[in-house]
Please model this.
Amino acid sequence: MTLYMIGLGLYDEKDITVKGLETVKKCDYVYLEHYTSVLGVKVGKLEHFYRKKIIIADRDLVEKQADEIVLKAKTKNVAFLVVGDVFSATTHTDLVIRAKEEDVKVEVINNTSVMTAVGITGLELYKFGKTTSITFPESGFNPTTPYEVISKNKLHGLHTLCLLDIKMAESSKEDLMKGVKNPLPPKFMTVSEGINYLLEIENDKKQNVFTENTIIVGCARLGAPDQKIVSGTVKELLSIDFGKPLHCLIVTGNLHFIEEQALEYYRKR
Amino acid sequence: MTLYMIGLGLYDEKDITVKGLETVKKCDYVYLEHYTSVLGVKVGKLEHFYRKKIIIADRDLVEKQADEIVLKAKTKNVAFLVVGDVFSATTHTDLVIRAKEEDVKVEVINNTSVMTAVGITGLELYKFGKTTSITFPESGFNPTTPYEVISKNKLHGLHTLCLLDIKMAESSKEDLMKGVKNPLPPKFMTVSEGINYLLEIENDKKQNVFTENTIIVGCARLGAPDQKIVSGTVKELLSIDFGKPLHCLIVTGNLHFIEEQALEYYRKR
Model:
């Protein structure tokens, strides 16, 4: 049988493709990857729409029970649902490799990802450099990677998409080390938190990469009916409440006049 | 009423999202952007599946009659279908800006794009730098931009996605200058043509950016049931027939071990 890797898109149960929906309906097991991203609707809505029971796959399950998923796909049709497009996180490539090692057929049904959905801002996709992630600092460890990525992209006039951290109901490192499962409430980094993170590094490095006057675009809930997109300077956007997750942040490089014109429509007023 | 910008995904009529399909069905006019990319199936298949007449929008129509499309959307529901995700080409941002200037409501329904579908190769999306395009040389003019983009990306260890040119039934420059519409047959650049283009520049510049030993990945018909993905050196891939369009080419940067492991499955043998 087959392991179907199916992208769900960004917002609700109807963002799946027609092909994806037909495929889920014929699967015996349906897993939902539930730790690198989340939809804007509850899992029950998907279950109702597919008329299928969904097995929530947290990081622990996918990393430890990948073999079980692959094993099931030897005799049954298994759907592995991923928010956004299928290959955003390394783990899924890993799952596919394991399936191939076991001679299990893998089929991919793609969907949109935040990486191309940001095109709605009017910034041209082929003018983006490497994507970066800003993660919640852990016990005082603030990696400066995002700042360096922005700096290199800017050097070549390129925009930078900064994905903002998601912590799904995971146990703390301390609990995990004790072997205790005690999931903390989920946490989603906001645009302002992302901005403050970068400003702190700027304050330290002073390389003029991310200052109060840098032109940025904040996005929240891309693909949802209540999506919010605001462009402006760092100073202007710092105080804006973007509301519910997920948020992301774009640091602009050189702007073409059509891009400037498009960003005008999203200006903070 | 509303101008709906709807992504179609990469292969056939069922790659549209459920939301996209429901929306097309309620539209009074359905345009299909038909010059920056093409699906793997004929337009008639879409018409049959949607039960709607489709207006083919070539470059000429979109650029000259954008106002007409926007005007229609003032009183009717208009769908503007785009292969892949919605905002891959500047023209569509332009269309949205015109709609906003006329106070026409715009809604976007996203879909996958080759830019994230390449994740199936096992190369990590956040390790890609700027995307580039290799275009058919026109009257001896061979821009070296793709070579320079690859060079800069490599400098930072990043992969480069090279989109390969598509010329849809367009009139020649000579005919256009004479005001004559005389569309030439469509042309799609192949992986080997892309490789040869880059080798010629390497031969001229000799900067060791794209040599016979560079590790690349050739992809054809991503998202289609007969998609073909082969990894190997430039020398190995040069003679491979990737078959029908569309093709694209990835020049790898530094490879992580999971990426190497994934590419092994696509090795030329």
Q: What stands out?
A: The CA atoms of residues 57 and 65 of chain B lie 9 Å apart. The domain at 2-112 of chain B is CATH 3.40.1010.10 (Cobalt-precorrin-4 Transmethylase; domain 1).
